[in-house]
Each structure stands twice: as C-alpha cells, then as structure tokens.
Amino acid sequence: MAVKKFIVDRIRTNLYDDKKIVFTGWFNPLEKQQGELIAEQGNQKLQLDIEKKRGIEIRQKHIGEPYEINEEVTGTISLPEDWETHGKIQVFHVADGVKEKIITLSVRQIQKIIGSVEYCIDSVKVIEDHLEVIGWALGNRTVELQIQDQRGKAVPFESEQYYRKDLLSTFYELKKDQNAGFRIKVKLAAEDEKARTKEAQSLAIIMQDDRGISRYRVNLGDDDKSPKEMMITGKRIKKAYKYLLHNGLEATVKKSVRRLRHENDFPYDEWRERYEVTAGDLQNQRKTNFEHKIFFSIVIPLYMTNKEYLKEMINSICAQTYGNWELCLADGSGKNSPLTDILEDYTKKDTRIRFCTLEENLGISGNTNAALNMAKGDVIVLADHDDIMPANALYELAKAWNEDSTIDVVYSDEDKISMDGKQYFDPHFKSDFNIDLLCSMNYICHLFAFKKEILEKTGTFRKEFDGAQDYDFILRCCENAKNIHHIPKVLYHWRCHLDSTASNPDSKRYAFEAGRKAVEEHYKRVGISARVEHSEFYGMYRTIYEWQEKPLISILIPNKDHIDDLEKCLNSIRKSDYTNYEIIIIENNSTEEATFSYYKQIESDKIHVVYYEGEFNFSSINNFGASHAKGEYFLLLNNDTEMIHENCMRELLGYCMRTEVGAVGARLYYSDDTIQHAGVVLGFGGIAGHTFIGKSRYDLGYFGRIVCAQDYSAVTAACMMTKRSAFEKVEGLSEELRVAFNDIDYCMKLRRAGYLIVYNPYAELYHFESKSRGLEDTPDKVERFNGEIELFNRKWEKELEKGDPYYNPNLTLDNSDFSLRK
C-alpha cells in the first residue's frame, strides 16, 4: 500500500447545513511538500473551502498519533442542488502534477452521513444493579435519546445531557446551547451479575434528530475484557489503519509484532539509528581543535576482570575521537594476576595507558583510590572495568568544559549493553541536576567526571560504603560543586550482569544498605535532620525529615457548593497526624442554602469561612484566602481532594521546611487508582502538563520517577504546600491567569527566585477533578482559556524554548509516560 500524502481523520456533514460535507485530516508530516486539495463530482469541480489550524490545541488533540501533528486541515465541500443525480464525489491531493485520490463517497454514503447522528460511546459498564453509558451525540439540535430492548420496546431510563467543550475542536459550528454529552442509567432487573450483563447487552440506545437516526447496540465485550479495554478497541483499529496510511504495510506489520511482544512502540535500536552519532560526525570530531586542551584521567579499578570485556573496554577508550587522555588502571587481582599480560601489551602499544598491580585486593573503594593516585589529569573520569564508552564520550566532555570552564562536575545519559556486546537497551535519559532525585536513588551513575581539584574537598572513595561507594562519592562531589552539568547524550554503555544489582537485586542487599547510609550521611553533612529508609523498591530511598519545629499550616480551600466533597476533604484532614493547622474555606459564589448552613455547622477555632466576592478567579481567590491566613506555611488544596494517609501534611511539610524549597506537591490519583498528577513537565502538550497520567497507582514509572521524591519545574496547586515567605516574595499567584496555568506560573516564579519545587510521592491524595468549578463548557470560557495559554507562553517563552531541565530532550513531549522521542 502506498503511503498517503494526506490522512483523513473524519468525514461528516455540517451540523446545521446538510448541503455541506466536512472532512478533517492533515498532510503527512513525513512529506516535505504540501499539495492542493480539490473536490470533484463527475467532470464538475466542487467548491471546497480549506481552513488550517495550528497550535497547542491541535497538538493536544492528536497527541496519540504516530507522528507529531502540528497542523489540522478542515475541508468543507458545498454540494450542488442536484448532487444526488451526478454520482460519487471525490477529493484529490494534487502535487507536482500527481493526482492522488484521498476520499471517495458514493451518493448512498453521503445520504447515510446526512441521515445519521454523529455519536461516540466513551464508557459502557454495569455498576451494581444498573447499566451506565457515557458518551456524546450530535445532530442539528439536541439529540433525543431512547432505550429499547431487543423487541424494540421502550425501556425506562435516567439521563443527563450537558455541553461538551471538547467537541468544539472537531465540530467548530457547535452552538452554545446544544447539549451533546450524555450520561444514561438503566435499572437492570436481573439478580445475578451474569444475567445483568446479558440483560444489558440486549439493549440499544436510539439517538435521533430532525434529519436522521443512529442506533448503538450495548456491547460489554467478552467476560475477560476490562471496560477500559473495550472502550479503546475501536480507537486502536482506527489508529492502526491511520498508521498503515502513514507508513505502509511493512512498517505496520513490524509495529504490530512489537506490540504483541510488549516492546516499546518506538524501539531503542531504531532510536539509536536515527539519533546516534554517524561516522561522519566522529571524523569531524577528530579534526576539532579545542582552545582548552582538557587532560582527562580515566580511572578504572580491576579485579579478575573477564579478559574479553577488559579488551573491549580499553579498545573503546582507544577509539575516542578526543585524544588528550590517560587511562589509569589499578589491578587488585594480586601478584599473579591473569590480567598482567593483557595490560602490558596495551601499555606497549599506547603510552597513554598505565597500570599498577596491587599486592592484594583492596576492595572496590581501595582499588579505585589506587587508580586515582595515578591520575595526572585536569579532570577525572570514572568507569567500570567491563563497560564501554562510545567514541564521542571524551569529546562531549571536552566540548562542555570548553563552553563553560566553571563546570565542576559533569554527568551524561547512559544505556545498557548485553553480555555479548551486540544489544543496546534500557536507555536512561536523565534530569539535569536534581538533588532530591539523587537522594532518592543514584540516578547520576555513569558517565561521571569531575575536576581533580574537587578531591581536596571531598576526599576519595570510602571502604565502609562498598557496594554504593560511587553513590557516596557522587553525593560528596555534588555537595562541593558549584556548577553541575548534565550532557543529555548516551556516553556510557553499562554491561548488564545477571547477578548485578540491576538484574538480580537480592544478590547484593548490602549494596542497597550502603546506599541508604550514603544518603543519610549526606543529610548529616549538610545539616538536615532526616532519617533515610528503604522504599518498597530496591535501590530507591525515602527521606523522613525530623524537624523539631511544628509550624502552623494554613490550609486554603476554595469552595462553591458541593458540600459532600468538601466534607470528605475535611474529614481526611481531621485524621491527620499533624495537628497544628487552621483551615480557611474561601467561599465563592455558592447558590445552595445547604452550603451556608453547613458553613455555620463547621466553623470553629480551626475552621474559618471567608467570603470572596466576584466571579471565579483561582489566583485571586487563593490570594484572598492567604491574606486571612496566620500560618508560616500555606497548603493550597482543592475541595475535591481526599488525603489517603494520615501523614500527608507531615510529608509535605518535611520538604517545605528546607530553606531552599519553595513549594511541594503530592501524588494525586483519580478515583480508579490511576495517576492524575506526579509532577509537571514544561512542554507536555505544547505548554505544560502532568506526568504519567493514567498510569497505575502502583507503577514505578520511567526509572522509578513516579515513586521517587524529586525536583520538578512545577506541581499542581490541587495540593501544593508553600512557604508564606516565598508566597509573599513572588507576590502570590498571578491574577491575570484566572483559571489555567496559575499554579505552574507560581512555581516558575519561585524557581526564578531561586527556590526548588519538590514532588513528594509519599503525600498521596485522591483528586476528583474540578467538580466545584465545572467544565470549560462555553465558547467564552474556551476563548479565555486559550488567552491564558497565550499569556503563559509569552511570559515564559525562553523557558519553554529551552526545555524542561528536569525532563530530557530525548524523551517525547507527546505523551506523559517518558517514552522515547520519535
């Protein structure tokens, strides 16, 4: 099958004019040239109006497509009065004299399009004794709904119809007063689960407007399918077809095989082919003459190393495109070392290679220190005895130091290599320096290089931390470094042993205990009162702060009606093991009498209600609440949240009490125990977005980033603790951002003022998502929302262009799961 130049996403009729056929799609992003679109019926050219839309909304709308879609095309074909007498209608893509057919519609197909109601079923499931169906239906007016049994007899049901703002991006002509969304509930008579399922599947939903009718037969799928699987099956088929049109049959078959094998949608070997340095790049690097000739000492301890691995490691260093280096090898294999002949052979061939043979094995730290004592270079580079450095590794280090001579420490991204050296896998694309992530795990690891002079402050490797000696050393280096630089390139291939801590954690529990002690010692050195515990996952650690002070926390909760949600939120706070708090409920435009009666019931020494007059403005409301607060710390909290554990506030406060921390966010879940928030990354969806949305509550995420405390560019204010002093320093939330991005903007202001923003996964809440305020469900609100996006974009343009320092340019911005950039 030929690859299409234009991909059609949807064909429909205009909602209010059945003489207009509308299609949407996009030009294939792999094609350099966009052609012209024309419509014909027989020999007659039809009027075809083309509109192109670009921007954040388009990126977000098509975020799941195989390639980045930045521009969407809407074509509107005007049908002649006698269109039914002239046969099929066709749309062509024309470029360089080549005419490619992209749409063919018979008269019968057009009649069917006009005579049908557009609809989509988002969810269908049996809940206890009733069937619930959620979706939308669009016609030339609000669609009439009916439920019928298999005999066509009407079945009683309850329904709610509401506006769906998300449909505006596809149905641009949708009127403000037309409620397309629906939630249907049907009482099921059957008593047992199997019979209720059968009863539900005998029903059909009838959707009708003035022009036509559509019918959906309820399908709960097979017994072994989850509701989520059933909902996405149709979408998968559609995506598979579009991928076929994009890429042709061969690529689609390969993709399908990868999915069946549960491989990454974009395999790392393909990523390497696309982005790794070429032979031409390496040749140019060899010709580069840097102003500063950095002399690197590569320091490697040896002990009974596999001879082939040792040769591969040394050969990889000899192949470096930057040549000003020395290799310092300390062999702890003893006087009769089996490695001596190999090492002597290499030293004869290349005078840059030196080794010493130790009388006995001094352990990993002692052997490394012996190699360090040999080093004469300006910069020390650490490596292991059986790993591999790609040919551009030292070049990239030299380049970094030539661009900024103030750098003290450099680290890079890395991947793993199979024992036979043929397969590369498990790439770790890292954050820029992230002290809280480093205290959660040794994410820096390899490649690690530092100015030799820093040893005077840090000291060398310590035997008591063997197993995690590099972790301890990296922590000490980072404590004493003023400028820590990250190179977002794979400059190290870590050979994966079956009995290594990476592949078989139980084999080296002592290493994880050494790591725990290393982090705890770090806190002691920097004067922070904290203890470190093992997390549920090997090699990851949890910090528990032990501050003596117990400052007052002012909890700011904006509220409009929904007292059931508010009560649930308050009850979860009351269970907290931290008791020095006050709650300030910021009332805004409630209309139900029960709400105000409830306020009178709950007001006390700990709970105060203040009244904000004016239309909804999240920033103004919270600033108003803060002006009534007495606490040293503010906890901005949505009324539709529920703290899961009693230690939630203590977890947030622990990090927030550190001098350099400006705000702390939590891990938030939807009611189905999937991730709603685990930090914010700049660039997601074109502006900024939450990480790992929809992942299971129990997932680790990319290299543990769901479950590790770490620094991020921002966190959501659905649950965010911040210092009062920091809040006042940056003048609170920006009130020109009424609804969107005000929390991210606040975090950006804090970062600009020198503060860190921390995500703490051990502060866990349910977030039932904006029940109080409602949806952005009118064109006016949509326009305002888009205006706030533009404002945020202008305000933080440089930061958005530069990219999020706590993410990585090798990872995609089109999904929140940290998958590879395509």
From TrEMBL:
Signal sequence region: none
One Pfam assignment: Glycos_transf_2
Protein name, as recorded: Glycosyltransferase family 2 protein
Transmembrane segment boundaries: none
MF terms (GO), sorted A to Z: glycosyltransferase activity
UniProt KW Transferase keyword: yes
Domain Glycosyltransferase 2-like residue range list: 297-457, 554-729
Key words, A-Z: Transferase
